[in-house]
Amino acid sequence: MADIEVPVLIVGAGPAGLATSKLLSGHGVRHLLVEKYPGTAHTPRAHIVNQRTVEIFRHMGIEDRLLAVATPHELMSNNVWSTSLAGLEVARLQAWGTGPDRAGDYRKASPSPMVNCPQTVLEPVLLDAAREHPQADIRFSHEFLTFSQDDDGITATVVDHGTGSELAVRSQYLIGADGGRSRVVEQAGLPIEGETGLGAVVNVWFEADLSRYLAHRPGVLYWNVSPGTDFMTGAGMLVCHRPWTEFVMSVIYNPATESYPHTEEFAVDRIRRIVGDDTLKPDVKNISGWTINHQVASRYSEGRVFCMGDAVHRHPPTNGLGLNTSIADAFNLAWKLAAVLRDQAEPALLDTYSAERQPVGRQVVDRALASGADMAGIPAALGFAPGQSEEDGWAALGGLYEPGAEGDRRRAALREAVELTHHQFNAHGVELDYRYRDGAVVPDGSPEPSPDRDAELYHHPTTWPGAHLPHAWLDRDGHRISTLDLVEGTSFSLLTGIGGESWADAARAASAATGIGIDVHPIGTRDGLLDVDGTWERLREVQVSGAVLVRPDRHVAWRSASAVADAAEQLTAVMRRLTLPVAAEPQMAR
Questions:
Q1: What is the predicted pLDDT for the residue at 256?
Q2: Distance (Å, rounded) from C-alpha 537 to C-alpha 82?
Q3: Which of 83, 135, 149, 427 sits between 20 and 30 A of 97, alpha carbons compared?
């Protein structure tokens, strides 16, 4: 006999697990979340929260809570490369869409800003929100041990570290959000592909007032490029978590040839070297190490088991994609679980989770590794070389400031190397434009639109089925509302316009036939939502009488170019196809 019976068991209370809890509660799904540690993250870890993730917080009704505690977008601006914070600055890049040439792109793309928020701050926001729902049973100091699955469900064993007793948990589904050493992934037999141990990293979390070095050039990342240092990133890199007093120093090194003592004395020496102040007295809060991996699971599910987050995609923190991809995994799976548990969809809908999300994970892992390699051009442009003495390094750096053709060449090489990092620090297309080409999507027969600019750097909004619904500001009763705000709960949304009145009757018929709600939103009619500046008209890619069907996770499920005589039959057939899908093999995300 089970000690606990619940529809869904979630293992892991990181961003993915907590977001899944909040989302499932919003869909009315009871669940148990277990976490072996006594609380949320005890070190900052991931911190870049991109626009797509802030939109998901908006969908969950807690965007305002996140913005209240996060570092705002305008204070994320500068990426700085310097010999020390007090010393010579050799390069700077405006990052995360804050530069004048990119700020408009970011504002147009989303109703939500990018922010900087470490997991020590973000996870409590999610936890508090998740605990507000009676559907959520969240237990810390409860460790998942094993599971078995049969045709009807999952039986898992969990140990309560408070009492030492073991609990048998019976659930219909199991979600493994238990991180890079996932016990759920291992026991489910999900194949992990890729490489491990590509480098080693030490993170030193500390507090110190560095306002006089940083307030005039606010940013998130400060790269040390001092000559003669013996590590892959100079003396180290500073990540600002709270302006301008809380930081993580990250030092990347090759464990085969280098070592980094995990001592406060060594850490303080490195911090002082990066800052350029031998009198600084940093308060070291934590020293921890981790390895750089390049791995992704070839599939994310096995039967009734679904895995997400770092459990299935493991990569360097470049581009700041890990936390964001993890929460997007949760957003994709939660509505599908709710639909199946409500008998609104067949279990085959859950197979589309892996088909849709695994290609995104592969893209993220590969981009993160490529971004790390892109950084190598900067020390090379500065004239640095492995094993170089400090004296020789300063001499080489001096060439950067010499007049004449050689100095011009060096300066051009440095600027070119810095410009290449836009693909890490201004990769708007990577952050926003993942599309689902197979899964819970019904093609309309049109070819996938080709980008007219760099697909990684720039966002390309489209209503092509599988893409994310484009953001456009609309007016309703004197209030501004985003097209994204039209999608709520587990209902689908149907966006139409003048001459598309028949879609309302079609939606009622399709809902009656399938049991899934479809909210109809006329845009541009006198008594509907007003597209006063014509943004939606430019983005919709269908005629004014056509329709765009949007899933609960804001991805376009299907569209019709115009009004049709058999709208009810077509829409009902589409909804049945969406809830009775045949999952395809994962395809590469673009």
A1: 80
A2: 47
A3: 83
Q: What is the dihedral of CA 144, 148, 149, 154, to 10 degrees?
A: -40
Torsion, Cα 552 501 483 540, to 10 degrees, reads: 100
Pairing of strands 31-35, 4-11: parallel
* H or E element, residue 239: strand 237-242
- Cis previous bond, 205, omega within 30: no
Written as one letter, the residue type at 585 is E
Asked if 256 contacts 418 with a C-beta cutoff of 8 angstroms, the reply is no
Question: Which residues, 6+ apart, have CB-to-CB distance to 286 below 8 Å?
Answer: 42, 43, 203, 204, 205
Confidence bin at 234 (pLDDT 50/70/90): low
Strands 48-49 and 192-207: unpaired
Q: Give the position of tokens 């999608």.
A: 487
Strands 305-307 and 301-302: antiparallel
pLDDT band at 387 (very low <50, low <70, confident <90, very high): confident
What type of residue sits at position 432?
A: L
Task: Give the model's confidence band at 282: pLDDT under 50 very low, under 70 low, under 90 confident, else very high.
Answer: very high
Rounded CA-CA distance 28/24 in Å is 6
Work out the mean pLDDT of the chain and round it to a whole number: 95
C-alpha–C-alpha distance, residues 382 and 390, integer Å: 13
